[in-house]
Fold:
Amino acid sequence: MANKEIVLEAKGITKKFPGVLANDEVDFDLYRGEIHALLGENGAGKSTLMNVLYGLYKPDSGEVKVEGNLMQLDSPRDAIHHGVGMVHQHFMLIPVFTVTENIMLGAETDHRAKPNEMPLVKLDRKEVAQKVAALSHQYGLDVDPEATVGNLPVGLQQRVEIVKALYRNAKILILDEPTAVLTPQEAEDLFRIMHELTDKGVSIIFITHKLKEVLKVADRITVMRAGRVVGTATPKESTEQSLAEMMVGREVILTVQKKPAQPTDVVLEVNDLRVKDVRGLESVRGVSFEVRAGEVLGIAGVQGNGQTELAEALTGLRHIESGHFTLSGRDLTGRPPRPITETGLAHIPEDRQRHGLVLSYSVADNMVLCDYYQPRFSRGIVIQQNQVDANAQKLIKEYDVRTPSAFVSAGKLSGGNQQKVIVARELSRPVKLVIASQPTRGLDVGSIEYIHKQIIAMRDRGVAVLLISAELDEIMSLSDRIAVMYRGEIVATVDRKDATREQLGLWMAGAHETASSPA
Amino acid sequence: MQVDTTSKSPSQGILRSALDAILIPFLAILTAVILGGIIIAVVRGNPFLAYYGLIQGSFGSAKALSETAVWATPYIFAGLAVALAFKGGLFNIGAEGQLALGAVFSALIGYALPEWLGRDIPLIIHLPLTIIIGMAAGAFWAAIVGFLKAYTGGHEVINTIMMNYIALNTISYLLNGPMKDRDPNNVIARTPLIADSARMPAIFEGFRIHWGFVLALLIALLVWWILNKTTLGFEIRTVGSNPDAAKYAGINVKRTIIITMTLSGMLAGMAGALEVTGLNFRHELGFSIGYGFDAIAIALLGKSHPLGVVLASILFAAMRNGATRMQFLTQLPVDLISVLQALILLFVAADAIIRYIYRIKSKGERVVLTRGWGG
Structure:
């Protein structure tokens, strides 16, 4: 942070959506050459604020100034014109195009054309490629202009997005949850690049919910909660604990309290499992492991390395090509979900709105989604609605689901409470195995804390837990053993006590040769 | 935080949801009636006289009421058929073909079975059998589409349309050929009259209203009960609302799709069977044209709720039935009714217009009519 020259200033931004005040008189400023982290839970209003700055939403009131000039924000085009660039969480790249073509896209200018003339643009790939190479070199981005984007690893694709913004002369970069898809090593590289950018005068707004990262790279931290700015701090005067409390508005316990595990019998045994993904490519390639009663096996890995398909195969949702698995000694390979559930599986699915809930159904109906036909809810073919409702009343209390009543549709609940409905339904059954896929993705700190406690409670009750998560912190704090998945294989399995973030990160990035598996 | 989980009783919830459900259709009808009145005025008719005629012709006398019920009967069955499929996430455009097949097979059993057996059959056996065969024909025809959807991903919209062509053209052949009324004076493509033992008794002597109407109301109640109170209904609705969650919940999605289509076809087939056994006592080519397609409109207007379907059916029946009286009083063409129906549907389907006109906030829940290919 060289000086305190303000490059971007948002004042009194207010944005209402039907029933929600997404931004309430938000003030935000950005100095030249700083990394300003914007921290907050889902629904705190971070994305709304950024969409206002990027011209996607028009605020109800408030103004934005860039380098002292009032910005008329009607579309991203205006934002780009003012030197604001954004790297979205989900990349806006065309996989079959080269890096150069992707960067030209939407900016196919022809310098020879006269202004206001509708030119038949000649795509000057060579010139753009040179400029891309120059930018890449200047900021240490190491991007090959001729590479096809689809062949690049995620970390590099992200850099292409950064180059794309720089190519459009961005002086202010908004990075929306940039580390969500990266391995710890890739994240380190990103932080290095961010510093290189700020050294050369680019200013960065860094949106995240990961406290560790914020403390590491940010120059200033602004915390948002419920549509308002709670405060701005520097990393020096903050701790993870203090930031978490600012985000949530109350004291939170970040570390999961747990006793040592006491594993007993093998509950889940997976043997040389092979599964194909939706595109027909083998995405689980010969995976074997076992989970014992009373332990948590965490499967770490960057998203898209076969974890989703593994979970779907073990829960009967996806066809198994070869290999087999047993639950409590019963071979359930190739069986549909119901017999697996009845053998004692609780499944907290990765995509809660797609698999876990029927959003138009009431909370009560969702709480019997897997059990509606069981004798306790149905007499013959007739569903006993009073039993269903009583069950809901009980679970709502027991699992602290914040809902106006058991009869509102699940779609009206917040993400955290939707997840609690699923957790309540799945964990209240007599189960032997819990498969939890990304159980806290996108949830607020309070809900995360609660769900973590429930998972450990299940373990302590002698249930086997298979935890699949892309959040390394979650894996580290809940697991008793950790297996790392990379490109459809388990490349290493370690005891929690022998695991380090660095080593796990290397395995997650595919460092096979160092994988000496002690377990 | 203390959460009050008893703040809203379910009965209040049901009342509220019922009110929400009928609000848009009611306003759509109201708007269509006003707009229809303007159209009548533009063509130099008297809208008040026209609507008076419409109401008088449909509800103004015992005969008018009876005829409205006669029109409403196949509408209710076919409307329930389409609505049930909607609940299961399927768009059954094939009610027309299923209905016609139901009618033909009912007629066949109705006139030919005594001949085949060479003796009279008691009504208590012959009549139910005639209806059941009609239902089975419709069910079978729709089940094929359900099977194709479940096991090959073939889209039910395309397949029901194709099955309509096959059914209607086959029926045309049958009515002109092997099943044609053998009366030497007959030039019409129609079956012979069915035996007395296959005919439904009249409710009131001298009126055409038949027991099929009462049956329709009972079946509507039964469909509501199945959908909302049974495990099968839970499965159908879950598959219809979120097939991924249904699979996750252990529901056999393929089987449920086939069952849904079969039940839907069965209801459509019943519509045809009751037209034959209760009203016409034979099947005639072109007689049922349009019931199966109007049924889609009725299911939409009734928001796929069995009670809504009954009300929408009665509305459509009244408009069809009262049209003649309206024409007599005002010399306006009967086709005006089609315009009115189209307007109602337009406003129900594009309910954003109604929400805009009457400033109603969207609930954010959408009716899923059908899903993409292979969905």
